[in-house]
Amino acid sequence: SPAGRGRGVLVSSEWPLFDGRLPFSLPPPPSGLDGQLVIRPLMEKVESRSYEATVRKVTFPHRRLVSCARKARLILFQYPQQLELWRLGTTSATGRDGEVLPVSCPPEHLLQLKNKGPEHILSSCISACGTWIAYSTASRLCLYRAQLASEHVALQRVPKVPKVACGAHQLLFSVDSTRLFVASDWGSVHVLQLLQSGACKHLHTLRPGSESLEAAVLLAVSADGSWLAVANGSGQVNIYDLQKAKPHCVVPVYNCPVTALAIHPVTNNLVMAHSDQQVFEFSILDKAYTAWSRKLQQQGLHRDWLERDTPITHIAFHPQRADQMLLHDTHMFCLLDKSLPLPEDTAILCNQPSLKQLSKTARHSSAHAFKICKKYQPLLFVDLLDEQSLVVVERPVMDIKAQLPPPVYQKKFGT
Q1: Measured between alpha carbons, how far is 322 from 199 in angstroms, rounded to an integer?
Q2: Which terminal residue of the chain has fewer beta carbons within 10 Å of its beta carbon, N or C?
């Protein structure tokens, strides 16, 4: 990731209001001149074709560099040469919308795990219980078991990790922390079983029904451990039956790559966001798009939503409200409520400030499915901890500027 200082914010709330936050700062990686290769139609939806508009599209990574252990309330940050593990802070206070709550237990830096060798870390993740940490470079996969105590963390590297892949494009633990999924080349996914003894073994390799030249780049597993969704670089999404360890179905191919996907913990419906800002919901059991997804495509998304210039990079679901999902890009996070009507193009998409000024009756009649918050940005990560709390990782622009190296001057002759 580019040099800079990140800030984590724990947002505790009653949906969709946001009560307060517990900010903490992360030490920046060494400053340097960093590059990023971006391949896409750059100015396709930009009215003001300026340098600033161009830079806005390519400044931040379009993949997740942060993972969260919800049950253990831990958060793992990925840097090019190291990982950092933090325990999130807590507060016992309550307050009104917008208030900053006092911290009863401050965030705690638990460990720093440095990669050995010159290779950069490609992907990483932490299990929901917080006891397993995995990361991959271009040539090796490393797995650790962590024992959490009140004041320290004991980290033990798992020996003899199966050499099933040279480099993982993404890593993902199952919800019960018994399996590790390793996204690999040719669309395949290696499944490792995590044993109570602290060892692991290779169970099997999932491969698409038809030959694929694209690597598997995005993974999503169901809460009950029955289904795994795998997206490759060309936009194809394969769904596997984990009980039978074989392909279940293929989602109808869409002409834009998938940028985020997740499986609903109750319905087992797969939600996908694409690079053109379209959102689809697919029923794994019925092997077809849901009625809500067909309605969404028939009516169309709001023009302001489609004109956003950064992709959705993460999708999560409210644990108690089946109709609500959380999506975020670099500049906003959105609570999408499927029980509410979709906004017309003539409506205001970001209407939360105006709704607060209306009466309760008028607010109810004017509400639509999209509730958008732009208070925290630029965003690297947003996720739900529980039904009352969000964890938000933002990277303030001023902190980025403070860490930049001096400008590189180039002599110009004849001027």
Answers
A1: 36
A2: C
Please state whether the peptide bond connecting residue 378 to the residue before it is cis, i.e. omega within 30 degrees of 0.
Answer: yes
Q: Which two tokens stand for residue 259?
A: 């940028």
Q: What is the pLDDT of residues 254-265, one digit of tens each?
A: 999 999 999 999
**What's the Cα-to-Cα distance from 297 to each of 106, 280, 293, 333, 349, rounded to whole Å?**
45, 8, 6, 21, 17
Whether residue 16 is preceded by a cis peptide bond, meaning omega within 30 degrees of 0, is yes
What pLDDT, in 10s, does the model give residues 227-277?
Answer: 999 999 888 999 999 999 999 999 999 999 999 999 999 999 999 999 999
**Beta pairing partners, 219:** 230
The span from the CA of 99 to the CA of 398, in Å, is: 23
In this model, does residue 27 exceed pLDDT 70?
no
Residue 185 falls in which region: left (phi positive, over 0), alpha (psi -120 to 50) or beta: beta
How far is 72 from 148, CA to CA, in rounded Å?
A: 9
Task: Let me know how long the chain is.
Answer: 415
Q: Residues of 204-229 as b/e, b for ≥16 C-beta within 10 angstroms? A: eebbbeeebebbbbbbbbbbeebbbb
Distances (CA, A) of 320 to 107, 108, 324, 325, 387: 26, 29, 9, 11, 6
Nearest one of 113, 129, 130, 198 to 159, comparing CA atoms = 198
CA distance 279 to 262: 12
Cβ neighbour number for residue 319 with a 10 Å cutoff? 16
Q: What is the pLDDT of residues 118-153, one digit of tens each?
A: 999 999 999 999 999 999 999 999 999 999 877 778
Q: Could you identify the residue written with the tokens 């190291």?
A: 82
